[in-house]
Structures are given as structure tokens and as C-alpha cells.
């Protein structure tokens, strides 16, 4: 098991977890965008694996998936992007995020092995809940890859222990019952949920869905171990295409600086 | 083959407690939906144990849908096919007439069952996906009948080519939302249905139209559709005191076929599922997930899928919009791997011939979906003895398809 993910969540501030779709607008552009995320201050990178049918995603990430596939992105390209990232950034944790079918097409062992070879630290599979863990989880754990689980507003106290069974890396709290990029949860509900989750696990808890402004990120950073930002970054990539690295870096820097001081600033 | 070693005592007690049909099926949904599908299963189990639920279902099927549907001996079709058959060959062809149901297809059986379940669960809003529009019309129908608001997701491509059904749904009070994402067809409509459900978890019930999706949908849709096979079995025994030799049904997602097959699975009856070969199985322009696809995970279940080597889903094609889906219900995937049901595929052109054959010989205009089954029957009847019996499911009528057929035949309307 790599220690990169464990080290990515500092004790004095929240970690910034940044999502971008691999191969959007094309595979050649992604490395520079990933570097921009790191340069801006991202602590964990979530690299989205495009899928033809991203049924948990809102319009922004759906469109990014289709742009990536239309430009010809293959699984092999994504693994190559990961391999290159690991070479350039030996200490920054990299997580692959996506859907079950592209991950398991050649068998879970193949995928887990390819992730290990590429220096991937964790995997978030949106449509493999704990009930279907056998389809991917054992293969990942055998290779030291963290299966990162999702908890949602519908995950009640009775269900939570099952969700945490076999989980690794961090716990991703999806703060809204809905698809990515739409709306943000009210702060009070996030605070309540994070307290409940942290009482049940030693894993860091990162909160995402609908986070876009530095103010929102700071508010979450006061209570959670990590802040996940996705659709807002993907929208910048959509607007700037192959020239997205600069604007992405500036945007991430604005989030990072808000998070850095969040716990020293009085809560609103 | 390793099938003999793993042959079950019964083919009728699937899925297992986790919703698996062998390696297929399951509950591959986002965590947000997981508590909902568990809750649905709990309520379905309670409904199954409640005689009042069954009584209400049966009553609506009889008085609202018009069941039992007739079992019909297609004498002229039988004779027509015997003309080309070798001496002594040419099986008797019978049809289960589910095209005579209210709304014109088998889809309504399932919708009645699911809306009763939805009301039992206290849900106040119904959503559904539709391809050709038959499931959308059936869902809109039951929503009108019970006064529940109804949202139908339909690919924009399908909206454009199925205008009469779009109008029907609107007449019935449904809101039809054209889906422009992806390829704007059935699978994209299903993605959008799932996106709606995940955002409206408290009040919304998703009426899935075929025996697919996360557990318990494949099981409950099959159970509601099994009225077809249960009736047919009893009707056969009462009419001619024997069971058929072969069952034939068209397969898109596979609900009409499972509805017919399931009550016969432990009998000495052969079964043939007919997929859509589109322009032919040698190319990519077909919708035959079992014969031309590979196991994978989509829309909540593991099953055979049309997909590329990276697991990206490819677009199916069929002249029949109802068969044009890149997946298949997981129970069919299991029945195929167990060797219990045989599967074949029929091209667009063959289906078109089957369509016209039934019009001319029996005075029945079938939907393009069962036209695939009819074409398969026409191929196989001449290889069977005259005292043998084929029972095919006439799962829908052809009113919705006359424009497509006219266009293919070069007729201007």
C-alpha cells in the first residue's frame, strides 16, 4: 500500500481534491492540465476515466466524457497519462474515478495490475456499491490500491458500517442526492454529516458535489478533511480546451488559498 | 461444456438473495440509489406475501388490461409454411395474443404491477424511460388511471421518429422530456431516468420497462410479465391437453420472452429467444447483445452488452426501436450460459417479411418486435414434425410501426 494518500490529508488544513476528465479535450492536453492542478495547490488528483454512459454525472462532466471519447481516448492512453504523472510527481496521490464497465472490461485483476504499474493510489468506482465489491475490490486491495467508497445523504447510520468495510484511502461524502455539478448542499447538513461520518471511521472524509467558489470550499474546509472540486474545473477545461492549464492553475490557487486560511478565519 | 455439472434442480428459483443470476444481474448503482433499491426489494417482498396486492393486480389485468389474452392457433400461417416444408414436416403454430392488451403490447402488465408497488410505498411521482414509446405509453396510461404525475424520458432521436406515441403520452397527461445527451436513444433515456431518480430519491418511483436494471427490477418485471406464460400454459393444457414443443419470443431487454418462458422453464419445452440482427451480425449494425456482445456492467446490472474492447457501449441498430438497446436482461444472459434457452437473430429484412407474412395469412398486423419472432418461426417450423407445436408470443400490435414499414417498402403515406 502506498503512503501517498495517507500523507495527503494534513492535520492543520483540509486537503484539496481535484477532478478532471482524462483525455478532455484530448489525451495530449491532459498532462499539462494535471500539472496545473498540482501547481495551483491540489493535494489529491482524481483522474476521470471517460465512459459513454456516465449516468451519475451532470451535463458538464457528461460533455467532458463525450469530448474525450470523440477525440479517441483509450484506456491505454489513460494509463499512460497516469504513468507520466507519477514520473513527474512522485509524491502527489493519483486516483482513478469512473464507472464499472471500463474498469472491469479486461477483468478486475488486469485493471488492478495496470493501476499498480501506473502508480495509481486509489480507485473510485461510481457504480460498484459495497454489495458488488467482489467485482473489483479484492483485486484492488491485493495490489495495494485503495478502493475509495462514497457515502451519500441516503447512507443512513445502519448502512454506514457496511460501506466502510474494505474501504481505503479516504471516504468521499457526496453531499447532495443528485448528479455532479448541479447544486450545493446547505452547510449545516454537511457539518452534521461529516460529524456522523468521522465518528464512524478513521479515514479522512472529503466532501464534494457542487463545490465551485473559494467561499464554499473554505466553509467545507472548516469541518471536513478534504474538499472535492470537479465540475467547476471541467467547465474551465471545456471553455479553454488545449489552453486550459493557465486558467485551471489560477482557479485552483484561489481555492487552495481559501482552504489554507479557512480554519484560522472565524466561521460565518 | 461445463453446464451439465452446474445444472440446477430448478431454473425457476433465480435470482439469489443478492440479486444474482449466476455471474449476472446484481445491484450496480451509485451509493445514493443503493438504499432505494434495498427499500424497493423489502416492499416487493411484502407485496408478494400480501393476498390483497395480488388480488388488485389480477383484477386490473382482467378488467382494465383485458386478460387473459387469447391463445390462438394460426391455421393459415401453419398451412402456408407447410407448403415449403418437406413431406410430414411443418409444426403447428400458435400465438399468445398479448397484442390485444390495452395499449397494444405486453408492457402494460408490468406497469400495472409497478404502479401498485409505487403507491404501496407512498411514492407520489412516476418516471420512466422509453425507446419506441410503448413502455412510455403504458406508463403514462397507468399514471392517468391512478392520478399520479408522470415524466417520460425519451431520446430526442426517438421523439422525432415516434411522434404518434409522443402525442399519446401527452394526451395521457405525461410530460415527455427529449434526451439529447449521448446518442439520444433508449440507453441515454435510461441514463437520464437514473439521473432524475438519484436527484428525487424521496418521492419518485422509477418504472423500468424491461427485465433489466438493478435487482429487484429484473425479478419483479419478470414476475409481473409471467402472467403471459402462466396463462399460456393453462390454456394449452385446457385446449389440447399438452404443452408446446417450442416457445419463441423476440428479445430487446427480454421482458416478453421471460414472461412467456419462465413458467415453462422446468418443463420439457424448448425455447428460442430472437434478437435483432439489424443489417447482419457480421457488422456492427445490430442489437444482438447475447450473440454479438460480451459480459459487462451497465444500468445497474451485469449482463451481455454491445461494447468495444475498452468497455465503451456501442450503439445498437434494429428496424424495431423496441429491440434497439445495447443490453439484455440478466436472466437471459444466465439462461444462455446455462444452455437452457437457445438464442438466434433475425435481420431487418427477415423481420419485414415476417411482418407481411402474418398480415396476409392471419389478418393480424404485428409490431416489428414480434415480427422478428414470426420470422424465426417461419425458418424453423419446416424442420419440425406436423404434430409438434410452436407457441410464439405476439407481444405487440403493429399500428405504431406502419410508417416505418411503409418507408422500408417504398410506399409514401
Automatic annotation (TrEMBL), chain A:
Residues making up the signal peptide according to the UniProt record: none
Pfam families the UniProt entry points to: Trp_syntA
Pathway(s) this gene product operates in, as recorded in its UniProt entry: Amino-acid biosynthesis; L-tryptophan biosynthesis; L-tryptophan from chorismate: step 5/5
NCBIfam families: trpA
Family to which the UniProt record says this protein belongs: Belongs to the TrpA family.
HAMAP family reported in the protein's UniProt record: Trp_synth_alpha
Full protein name: Tryptophan synthase alpha chain
Organism encoding this protein: Blastomonas aquatica
Gene that this sequence comes from: trpA
UniProtKB/TrEMBL annotation, chain B:
CDD domains on file: Trp-synth_B
Described purpose of this protein according to its UniProt entry: The beta subunit is responsible for the synthesis of L-tryptophan from indole and L-serine.
UniProt xrefs under SUPFAM superfamilies: Tryptophan synthase beta subunit-like PLP-dependent enzymes
Protein's recorded name: Tryptophan synthase beta chain
Subunit structure: Tetramer of two alpha and two beta chains.
Homology family: Belongs to the TrpB family.
Keywords: Amino-acid biosynthesis, Aromatic amino acid biosynthesis, Lyase, Pyridoxal phosphate, Tryptophan biosynthesis
Nuclease as UniProt keyword: no
Domain (Tryptophan synthase beta chain-like PALP) ranges: 67-396
Pathway(s) served: Amino-acid biosynthesis; L-tryptophan biosynthesis; L-tryptophan from chorismate: step 5/5
Domain of life: Bacteria
Residues that bear N6-(pyridoxal phosphate)lysine: 107
Keyword Amino-acid biosynthesis tagged: yes
Cofactor names: pyridoxal 5'-phosphate
Entries under PANTHER family matching the protein: TRYPTOPHAN SYNTHASE, TRYPTOPHAN SYNTHASE-RELATED
Pfam families attached to this UniProt entry: PALP
The EC number(s) this enzyme carries: 4.2.1.20
